[in-house]
Inverse folding.
């Protein structure tokens, strides 16, 4: 009987304690984790205040009216469409906008709005390369270029145009791709015929130049063969880097120069194949097996006054 009475008393006490805990004020019942979550929630509400966006729009509108239209690409008759207004940090918004008429594969215009300092500045990227993405980190706005040109068909290696907000400066960051994973990058543009010119190597940088023939047609602008650069895998599943040159023909001197590159300490093997595709276009494909290098990138540099661009392969 006593045991049952004690058990009943314990049950009643536990019920009373649970009831008291449920009636505690919210501030006393919250754990440190609960308080942290609540604080973060408050910050998020402050982060997306509508008046900040309204102020940013007002500053942008004032900037369009007062700035040189050569920079903003806006005049009094322009119809403006703001594609994106993104908050970067506690002070800055990045505005991406277009003016009518809008053409496909054209870059947007960009303006940086500082709503705490009541400022707005146009960001002139000064590039014909198509901007495919924009990101922000630690005071740097990065405009990602896939390599496609919005004016002509000349393609370059993917890169970034970085804007330093504090310094108000632009810089180009060349991207590097892994030599251990499959990839393919299309470069240059298509021409009817060319031959290899001088081929040089210095400090893990190879330069391939090209020369015209009687059958080469150049109509102005930049020219380079259609080139594919990338990584494939051999029968043993080991990576092979390749350069595929369309309609570039190989002389004996050029072939010898390329094969001599195998003497470099970072090249273990070179193989050259001459192929035809389904459209009966000629391809000279150079396969490299590298050692002690992990990444590659490609760039171009002009040669002479022909409009031809040399391909530069850089390894690290």
């Amino acid at each position: 009987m006593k045991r049952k009475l004690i058990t009943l008393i314990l049950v009643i006490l536990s019920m009373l304690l649970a009831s008291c805990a449920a009636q505690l004020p919210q501030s006393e019942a919250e754990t440190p984790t609960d308080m942290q979550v609540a604080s973060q929630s408050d910050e998020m509400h402050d982060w997306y205040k509508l008046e900040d966006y309204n102020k940013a729009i007002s500053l942008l509108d004032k900037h369009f009216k007062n700035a040189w239209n050569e920079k903003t690409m806006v005049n009094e008759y322009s119809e403006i469409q703001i594609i994106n207004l993104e908050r970067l940090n506690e002070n800055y918004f990045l505005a991406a906008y277009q003016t009518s008429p809008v053409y496909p594969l054209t870059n947007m215009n960009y303006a940086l709005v500082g709503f705490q300092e009541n400022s707005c500045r146009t960001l002139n990227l000064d590039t014909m390369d198509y901007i495919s993405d924009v990101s922000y980190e630690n005071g740097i706005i990065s405009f990602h270029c896939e390599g496609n040109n919005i004016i002509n068909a000349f393609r370059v290696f993917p890169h970034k145009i970085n804007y330093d907000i504090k310094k108000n400066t632009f810089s180009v960051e060349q991207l590097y791709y892994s030599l251990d994973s499959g990839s393919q990058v299309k470069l240059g543009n298509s021409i009817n015929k060319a031959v290899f010119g001088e081929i040089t190597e210095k400090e893990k940088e190879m330069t391939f130049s090209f020369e015209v023939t009687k059958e080469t047609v150049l109509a102005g602008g930049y020219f380079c063969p259609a080139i594919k650069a990338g990584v494939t895998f051999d029968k043993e599943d080991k990576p092979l880097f390749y350069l595929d040159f369309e309609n570039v023909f190989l002389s004996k001197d050029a072939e010898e120069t390329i094969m001599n590159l195998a003497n470099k300490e970072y090249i273990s093997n070179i193989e050259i194949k001459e192929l035809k595709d389904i459209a009966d276009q000629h391809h000279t494909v150079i396969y490299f097996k590298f050692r002690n290098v992990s990444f590659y990138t490609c760039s171009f540099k002009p040669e002479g006054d022909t409009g031809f661009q040399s391909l530069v392969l850089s390894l690290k």
Q: What stands out?
A: Residues 20-46 have pLDDT under 50 and may be disordered. The chain is about 20% helix and 40% strand. The two ends are 86 Å apart (CA to CA).
